[in-house]
Amino acid sequence: MDRVDGSPLHWHSRKKELRYHAAAARLRIDVTGAGLVITKALRGEVRRRVLLAMSRFGPEVHGVSARLAELRNPLGGVDQRCRVRARLQSGLVLRAEAVNGQIETAVGRSAARLALHVAAALAAPMRVLPSRS
User: Fold this and answer.
1) Backbone angles phi and psi of 7, in degrees to 5
2) Is the pLDDT of residue 125 over 50?
3) Which class in CATH covers the domain with range 11-122?
4) pLDDT tens, residue by residue, 21-55
C-alpha cells in the first residue's frame, strides 16, 4: 500500500495510523441545543466537522461536546453560536467558541479553534501545580 504522494507506507506507520483512526471512530461527540432544534442532518454535520478536526489526535481526546444556540444580535438579527469542549486523556478540559450567522460556519470555526488548543496543550510540557495546604 502506498501513500497519496507515492511513497511506500511501512507496516509500523500503517499500524499507528490505523490505531489513531480507530480511536477517532470511538470518539464520543455529544451535540446539544439551547433554544435550537437539532435535526438529524444538523447533528450529523456537527459530528462530521468535529471528527474532522479532532481525529488527528487519536486516543488523546476522550470526548467532545458541542452546544449550539441562537443569540440575539444587538443590530436586530439572529446569530448562531457553537461552544465546544474537549476532555483530554490527561484530565484537561479545553473550550472554544465561535459566533456566526450560519450554524455550519460557527461549528467549523469552533472545531478548528479547539483543534489548535488541543495541539498546543499536547505540545506543551505538563506543568504540575503546587498543592494547596
Assistant:
1) -75, 145
2) yes
3) alpha beta
4) 555 567 899 999 988 889 999 999 999 999 999 98
Q: Are 60 and 89 in contact (CB under 8 A)?
A: yes
Question: What stretches of 38-102 show up as alpha helix (H) in DSSP?
Answer: 40-54
* Cell triple for 95: 473550550
Assigned C-alpha cell, 16: 499507528
Cβ atoms within 10 A of the Cβ of 124, count? Answer: 8
Query: Which H helix or E strand runs over 72?
Result: strand 61-72
The grid coordinates of residue 98 equal 465561535
What are the grid coordinates assigned to 61, written together? 481526546
The β-bridge partners of 100 are 80
pTM of the complete model: 0.74
